[in-house]
Amino acid sequence: MKRKADTEANGQNGxxxxxxxxxxxxxxxxxxxxxxxxxFDKDVLGKYTKEYADSEPYKHSVINSLIDDDLLRTVRNEIxxxxxxTPKETDIYKIHQSGDLANLxxxxxxxxxxxxxxxxxxxxxxxxxxxxxxxxxxxxxELSGRKTDMAINxxxxxxxxxxxxxxxxxRRVSYILYLTDPDVPWKEEWxxxxxxxxxxxxxxxxxxxxxxxxxxxxxxIPPAWNQLSFFAVQPGESFHDVEEVYHAETKEQLDKDRGxxxxxxxxWYHIPQIGEEGYVEGEEEKWGMNSSLKQLQGNPDRYxxxxxxxxxxxxxxxxxxxxxxxxxxxxxxxxxxAPGYLVPDTLEQVAEQFVEIFSVTLDGLLSDKFSARVRExxxxxxxxxxxxxxxxxxxxxxxxxRFLYRHPSEALDESNPLHELLDVFLPSxxxxxxxxxxxxxxxxxYELLGRRFRRGQDYALATSHDGEPRLEISLGLTPTPGWxxxxxxxxxxxxxxxxxxxxxxxxxxxxxxxxxxxxxEEEPQEDDVGGHEVYMTGDDEEDNEDAAIYKTSSDADxxxxxxxxxxxxxxxxxxxxxxxxxxxxxxxxxxAKGDRWDVSGSFxxxxxxxxxEGEEEMVTLEESSDDEVFRGFPDSEDSDSD
Length: 642
Known about the structure:
Largest sheet: 12 strands, antiparallel
Helix content: 10-25%
Distance between the termini: 15 Å
Number of strands: 29
Strand content: 15-25%
Structural class: alpha+beta
Number of helices: 14
Oligomer: single chain
Radius of gyration: 27 Å
């Protein structure tokens, strides 16, 4: 994924004094001294080669004490004093990242003088001697020394990287070199481990095989100072993630743990480029083609769960406003819904807002009596820590999503209010008629899904919708606080007060406090625990920017979020999702006070002709807090670094 690079020129009297110097070529002796003594011995190389060949779930290697300790300590100090980082967050990761270290060659002499050891480390790792060392262990073939591809990533508590296989372009070997605190050993319970996923092979009735990753990891490699982990990039096989770095229970404990800062240099070795030894014309294109074919091999969608199971209605449900809801329909709905939402005037107001902006959020949709039953049930489930089994299944494969889910069932358990919600109320003809009136849409089909996103485990990565526009509902059933819903409600109240005091005018703030030239003290913010559902514009820009980047330390005006809803209690969002719109549910941090619960639904619709095109409501998400912001190099070309 491409990233825009900001260029800084050190100038004097308005003139740039950028001076590029030739890339330093290390001597064989300097290369040997950059690594630990004895690393290149034949028997040591043979040991690592055998361990790699015997490793599972796929071939990988771990080398401890890779770099000369004094050199790596100096590198770490240079980074801490001189390298700036940029916070990045998408559906798949939350990290702080430097730019591509290949950009170091473009810095002026003054900047380079501050990073001599970092330059030496980079050049040693891409030297012919060490590339051949890695190539021998992995059996990957020749590796490029010209196409250096490495960045420094910092994971602080709450940061993570979800399941992926690293298959992009000409990547041949993926690696991570840890620069955690050398004097405070990293503890496994802090998280931050590189985790490898095994794969399952399915064979259909025609003998066609499909490989998919299993939902649970089978190999956990915790970070350690001066440890190198690496593996050959294998399409459809080298699936891995980076476990969340977990929060300490207290600030005192975090200080004792030196912040639990997981710093690492990570990147890739690529296929040799034109003019390099080992270059084969057309090999990179062939590699990319084979990677794509392997990922498409078999029928992977057949083994994706949950399955889409839309119910096609025999007779479309039209929004007959004049007819409205009859007494019998109201009697049914009032058992589940707050009475106010059944009043014709209120229903008309909801419809007017939806037709104007194609989205609406309804607070307190369920009645007090029924919502109390649902809440009691969910709180009991969380207290018992039951997460699997029974009527719940697990969504997979993990490079797309992972959460617990339940389809509607005809085997109703009347003692279970969540089942009653999913099996009786939401699939009912009465609710469909109410929804048609609330949106002025004709409903043609529906499907529903109960979901539970477990803290520290679950998420749904961004997917695009390629069909006709459809209604999507999400009924939030999360009883725990701390998800941002309370803050959003308070913000709306503040904006309402501001509107009243300024005759309805409102100044756009992009989530930044207005100080009017005066410094105001900001209240400390709780860490974002994720769990929010986000709709975003698809990636149709020519520069191929990552469409799923929705939080950075700047450029809030360029946000491409269409609609966002945090995990909440008894709130229903209704969104008209158009072709190409992305949607995801952000990974739920283990620091959350509970799990995210909801019922998700989609309804095939025919829009009324007089609704027009309209515009989507733009919702700007909060920016990262100043405490989390690092300042960075120009952005790297690829950001899914471990």
